[in-house]
Amino acid sequence: MTDLEAHDPDRTPLAEQQAVLSSDLTSAAQARRVVRQILQDVARDEWCDSAELAVSEVVTNSVLHARTEIEVRVGVYPDEVCVEVRDHSSTLPSRRDYDTEATTGRGMGLVAALARAYGVRSLGEHGKVVWFCIGDTDEVDPDALLAAWDIEATEPPRDDRCVEVLLRSIPATLWLAARQHHDAILRELTFWAIEHESAVGDIGSADSARSLVSTALAAALDRARAQGTARPPVPDGYPSPLPWGPDSLDLVVPVPADAGGAFAALQDVLDLAERLAVDGELFTRPGLPEIVAVRDWVCDQVIAQLAGVSPAPWPGTAQQRFETDVNDRADRRLPDWDDAVVTGARGPVVAADDANRILAVSPALAEMLGWEADDLVGRRVVTLIPPQLREAHVAGFSRHLSTGEAHVLGVPLDLPVLARDGREVMCTFLVEQAPTTTGRAVYLAWLDPLPSPNA
């Protein structure tokens, strides 16, 4: 029995069409044509746009994540059209915890918003079927529709063929931000490869490797929240979408003993994507250095532990290299922007670009923090951020680059600033975005030092 028959086994479709598609991005266009043609044949054009959009999302997800042959079946009934898409990957859709404004990861939520009925059915080792029906609109709760695909995270399967890899002190917020960046850049890389007829490595294996870590992390964060051990990653009153988690997390990930190649593929594919982003070949911005570092650390730990090496903890972001590592990963071109508003300011002001690179500082800020202004220009913003807040800053800024969301712009915040000698100076911040002529973003932070509590 197919999923469409399970939806209503007693009905006979007015028209039915099936197609077998290959695992490449041209399949989404083929699926759209199949859906549109059968709906036009039975004079149900009013369902075409929604059905085409939904089938495109489902087929594209199969191409990107399953990378197997795809079977599409369309059945038209008097009050709806039902579509099922089968691939041969046993991995079911899973929760991604993306921001509302994310440029990726919203496909199944979009299908849920369009459809009057939808579902996913596991075929075990033979794959899965994702199905949906679109027709005469009923009154529905949009929030419930969008939540329908928010499938609860489950622990990865544990069996004798798996090795339990220990990721000690994994930075949960940083990995989740990295995953969102990876999904966006890998999706664009796949389209780039189709357009340029170029091999880009084993994206399917890379996606499987990421999924192992992300599924285990989502389950661990759920447990922490249920147990009341989750904490916000930023100080009280700070407007942040970052998920809550435990203060420290040692994550156990069951990994197949032969998965080392998949994690090596993840590094290779993402390295290529980052190089293309740096060269301006992709719309997605290059990953911040910490985003690249946490990915490399996870992959290196999995590969090493599968070879019998003992676990090593995440070394954290309070490292000198992150304060100066801008040229290899960031866009080397500076924004076309007049820095006189900063260099001529009487109070403490700092300007940075969308590579998190300091463009200009006012004399008052340099004096307050014990720096020469010329020594700060060209360094990264994390130079001025206390170590305990760096991962949250990088995660939040990375999400901002991926989604465009801006929770802190125009909102006064009281936070510490790191001086050159290690002192923390409490200040009220006001961050604004300045216009440029090239489309590159520039951010201005106006600082007002707060009185010392001991004064």
Tell me about this structure.
- Residues 1-6, 95-106, 138-158 and 327-331 have low confidence and may be disordered.
- Strand 4 and strand 5 form a beta hairpin.
- Helix 3 (48-66) runs antiparallel to helix 4, helix 6 (172-196) crosses helix 9 (289-306) and helix 8 (260-278) packs antiparallel against helix 9 (289-306).
- This protein has helices spanning 3-7, 26-41, 48-66, 107-114, 142-147, 172-196, 203-227, 260-278, 289-306, 320-324, 340-343, 363-369, 373-376, 387-403, and strands at residues 15-21, 70-77, 80-87, 117-122, 128-135, 162-167, 251-256, 349-353, 358-361, 413-418, 424-434, 442-449.
- The chain contains 14 helices and twelve strands.
- The protein folds into three domains: 3-147, Histidine kinase-like ATPase, C-terminal domain (Heat Shock Protein 90, 2-Layer Sandwich), CATH 3.30.565.10; 162-316, no CATH class; 340-449, 2-Layer Sandwich (Beta-Lactamase), CATH 3.30.450.20.
- The strands form three sheets. It has a five-stranded antiparallel β-sheet, with helices on one face. Strands 9-8-12-11-10 form a five-stranded antiparallel β-sheet.
- Helices cover 39% and strands 18% of the residues.
- It is of the alpha+beta class.
- The radius of gyration is 25 Å and the shape is globular.
What structural keywords apply?
Beta-Lactamase, 5-stranded antiparallel β-sheet, alpha+beta, Heat Shock Protein 90, single chain, 455 residues, 18% strand, 3 domains, 39% helix
